[in-house]
Here is the input.
Amino acid sequence: MSFFISDAMAEAAAPASQPGIEGMLFPLAILAFFYFMFIRPQSKKTKEQKSMLEALKKGTEVVTSGGILGKVAEVDENFVKLEIADNNFIQVQRHAIANMMPKGTYKAMSKKSSPLAKTKKS
Here is the structure.
């Protein structure tokens, strides 16, 4: 009577096998892969950023996450006052500091962008 579906033959069902350690290797390998590729590098980067922010002090040259280069004038618990040009200051949140720059970067860039350093083209 079953034209499209063949009749199922009742056979003794094989007992369900329990996956042992072999069945757990693949999921454990995936978890290890995600840990070493994503979780560990991110936590390492977070730890480095935190130690860099704790090391901020007056006179340190930094770049903000917005790309502003400046020298630290004051450090507060939550905010940092940056000197971005001669007697021009801005305040940014402490976590907005992206990188510390080598000494002399601020002076070199301020001399380069100074209007006196530019010459008139005839």
In short: The chain has two helices and five strands. Residues 24-55 form one domain. The beta strands are 61-64, 69-75, 79-85, 88-93, 97-100.
